[in-house]
Design goal:
Structural class: mainly beta
Largest sheet: 6 strands, antiparallel
Number of strands: 19
Helix content: under 10%
Distance between the termini: 34 Å
């Protein structure tokens, strides 16, 4: 088992984004999300608000620290978040994983992105996700397309299960979790929770002294979420389902489902 005073990052970030043109500021590169912290200290608490904007029912959920692969072969990563108590912004980054010289953009609700010739609008920015809405009906249809099979095969073959707005897929993923109000325990020390529709959930570290933990999810060979330094009371999302961190021990992280 890992020492409570040690902490390890989960694997790097996500996808081959779009040739993104954003309503926001641009800056090259950024901190490598795969680099593990080398000291134990309390994480800076997010000042909130937790979310800004409203998420459409068919929106694309890009989870914190991870990414979403798009039907056209592009993708986007939610690299970092900023909140000052009244407003919230997100840093989106291009590329399948972190690399030197990558572009990144700071966005807020209402920001418009053109990615590989496809237009998206940022509808919601939360501490745990960014929600994008495709402008074109064809893009919406491609994202909502039904997979050939509901059984995961591994790797890119699972794109239609892992990166989708299809309601049948999301409903199947939802049923694989405990009911609303019920707990889900994720074991530390390499334990993996494999969902029937593809995603695997892991705990990268638990630091009981600092009261923080690291959680991650992978799907189709892509880290789709990397939640660093979460503490009791924080919200995380997996496969469209919301959870609140409700307990941390040296052996496990306990989550309580908060969405239906």
């Amino acid at each position: 088992m890992f020492s409570p005073a040690s902490r390890y990052g989960i694997a790097g970030a996500t996808l081959a984004l779009w040739a993104l043109t954003a309503c926001g500021t641009s800056s090259g590169g950024g901190d490598n999300p795969t680099t593990a912290p080398t000291t134990t200290q309390a994480a800076a608490k997010d000042k909130g608000p937790q979310c800004i904007g409203e998420a459409p029912a068919d929106g694309v959920h890009v989870l914190r620290g991870g990414g979403f692969r798009l039907p056209d072969g592009g993708g986007v990563q939610y690299a970092a978040a900023t909140a000052d108590g009244t407003s919230r912004t997100a840093t989106l980054r291009d590329g399948a994983g972190y690399g030197a010289g990558q572009q990144q953009w700071t966005v807020k609700p209402g920001s418009r992105l053109t990615v590989s010739g496809h237009a998206y609008t940022v509808r919601q920015v939360c501490s745990y996700r960014v929600v994008l809405e495709p402008k074109d009906a064809k893009d919406k249809a491609a994202l909502a397309a039904a997979p050939e099979s509901m059984e995961f095969a591994g790797g890119a073959a699972d794109n239609a299960l892992c990166f989708t707005t299809n309601r049948a897929v999301l409903a199947a993923a939802s049923k694989s979790f405990p009911a609303k109000g019920q707990p889900l325990s994720l074991l530390d020390n390499g334990g993996v929770k494999q969902l029937p529709t593809g995603p695997s959930l892991t705990v990268s570290y638990v630091d009981t002294a600092a009261g923080t933990a690291g959680l991650g999810a992978n799907c189709a060979g892509v880290p789709v979420a990397i939640y660093k330094d979460v503490s009791v009371g924080d919200t995380v999302e997996f496969s469209g389902v919301l959870f609140q961190v409700s307990g941390l021990t040296e052996q496990a992280v306990r989550l309580t489902r908060t969405s239906g």
